[in-house]
Amino acid sequence: MEASFWHERWENQQIGFHRPEAHEMLRRYFKKVAKPGATVFVPLCGKSNDMLWLLDNGYRVFGIELSDLAVQQFFNDNGLTPTISQKGKFKEYALDELVIWVGDFFELTGKDLADVDAWYDRAAMVALPPEMRRHYVKQLSEQLPERAQGLLIALQYPAGFREGPPFSVSEGEVESGFGQRFSIEQLESDEGIVNGEKPEDNPVTEQVYQLT
Ligand SMILES: C[S@@+](CC[C@H](N)C(=O)[O-])C[C@H]1O[C@@H](n2cnc3c(N)ncnc32)[C@H](O)[C@@H]1O
To answer: Positions of the region Disordered (predicted)?
Structure first.
């Protein structure tokens, strides 16, 4: 997935992944992962309202996002005025307990992430094709401080159901990718049952994992 793919998505506002509200699995489980006051890293953050939920619940947030437009929209949509500066290769938007860097996640170093206590992935790992996902897992595993624990929301669907992104990420892939560094617990799998049945036209299921 080239950077241009995502820039075009944002320019054309093809952002079906963006949700108007904070994710219910974040609301339900994040307090198991980190206490308020913790600094939470949000890779590939887009203009996610999950960041507002984290801020409202007393966390500090550090996001990284490729698209400057996405970050500008985050602040505009929420009527917030950040301070903008340059931090090496990255453009920084900062306001109180929130910092978002515009730039490439894969260029972050351990020093950039030294203050991180926890991380939250929704629609980040599943946004990447298989080879990039391996790189993504390696980058998080190598650059995050030892204390950092994570909440990962992934999804699965049968092969051939659709083209990614989002890509299907199995429990096995989460286990084999992150298992060397983290102990992994699946907290919930949402099977998308409607009125007691799984709709045939939507075989997508969503899983949430705690990585300790
Ligand atoms: C599917 S969206 C999810 C956004 C957000 N997590 C959410 O839940 O709405 C993936 C985002 O990752 C960003 N992205 C893709 N590759 C990236 C990279 N290498 N570094 C930083 N951001 C990236 C895209 O611009 C896009 O906004």
So the answer is: 191-212
